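S1.2 Input.
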Amino acid sequence: MRIGELARRGGISTRALRYYESLGLLPARRGANGQREYDEEDLRLVREIRSLTGIGFALEDTRPFVECLRDGHDSGDACPASVAVYRRKLAELDECLARLGAARDLVRAQLEEAEQRSRPCAR
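S1.3 Output.
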């Protein structure tokens, strides 16, 4: 299939596909006419990348998953390197949630103090 069809079926722009290619996430095969050629396996890679970036993974974080699929595994997370990325991402998310929780607690405390100060005085 050509780049336009892969883009349509993968739900992504041709520009993004070219970018994936430049990063080495997608193979750069060209036909005799010089046009990019893709197959169902490439569509599978694109869907894996989109799935992971859709939940907050950076493009570079998708590399172990893509390589795992390229190595013939049924799932992109069947390899130890992919599991390591999951663990790292989960730790990042936990840290982010802790920071957000602390910020929320601070805002709540400031709100309570402000509400105490803004109560009308009883005369």
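S1.4 Remarks. The domain at 3-117 is CATH 1.10.1660.10 (Multidrug-efflux Transporter Regulator; Chain: A; Domain 2).
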